[in-house]
Here is the input.
Amino acid sequence: MGFLMILSTLIGGLTLSAQSAINGTFSRKAGTIETTLLTFLTGTLFLSIVILFFGKGNVLAILEVPRWQLSAVFLGVLFLLFIVMAVPRIGVIATNITIIIGQLVLGIVIDHFGWFNSLVIPIDAKRAAALVFMASALYFIYKGNKRSMEQAQG
Here is the structure.
């Protein structure tokens, strides 16, 4: 089961990169907000069909959760909106590395303080070093992208 989860997560990462690139290109013609809206409308229709045939949960339970948990919905919209804005400007890999760094930074903070009922895992030198390496990777990727764009223009 662990291998299947790793494989499905890997496929999810592949689809995220493809979606980022396609949405970034699409947004140049249709607009950033319009592209984001179409993505969510399509996702809503698709998931409605999936729920209809395979759903086993209780959709109305969303009315019973604490209000702060509903913030995840808006965070998802912001996430996609920022991706659609960033890809045409800094490229797919720089966008994805930046996303990963953001996830790691907040993940480390959430683990350190045990927010949202997570395990408490203190920040240590290995985790801090990982962030430094990721930031270094972003720097070199971004600089390489910038240089490539300048060469293509001139």
Summary: Residues 44 and 50 are 10 Å apart (CA to CA).
